[in-house]
Amino acid sequence: MSTVADKLAKKSTRKTGGKQVRLRLVYVDFWSAVKLSFLAAVALAIVTMVSFFLIYLVLQATNLITQADAFVGNITDGAVSLASLLGLPQVMAFAAVVSILNLIVFTVLGAVVAGIYNLAVKVTGGLLVGFMSN
To answer: DSSP letter at 77?
Structure first.
């Protein structure tokens, strides 16, 4: 009696003749490209917010902000305080602004790339892609 694992092993050793198909990509749907680039931009925005927070925590833990504040205070005779400029609320607000700008730019860039590809297809005929079925 053979087990299920033996049957699967025999099945995987057999060579199956896969059919190879070559397809040409001649159109990228505009709204699909916008949605996909928006979702990628949201993921990038989350990564940006978390990375700003973690970098701030590392700088705070290593006392680099206080050392830089003392250095700038010596240069400017105490006129500028980095500690008040680089607080957690200010850093996270800056990260939010950067994330929102990246969200807008990345989404628009995805739409523009889809439009440019659709225009370039008229000249080049599209991208030739090969697929194989198993």
So the answer is: T
Residue 54: DSSP 8-state? H
Phi, psi dihedral angles at 23 (to 5 degrees): -115, 155
| Statement: the pTM of the whole predicted model exceeds 0.85 | no
> Could you tell me the two tokens for 65?
């902000």
Find all residues with CB under 8 Å of 37, minimum gap 6, and list them. 106, 107, 109, 110, 111, 113
* Per-residue pLDDT tens digits for 20-43: 888 898 999 999 999 999 999 999
Amino acid letter for position 128: L
Burial class (CB in 10 A: 0-12, 13-18, 19+), 41: buried
Distances (CA, A) of 82 to 4, 34, 43, 103: 68, 40, 30, 29
pLDDT, average across residues 93-116: 96
Find the helix packing angle between 30-61 and 88-124, rounded to 10°: 150
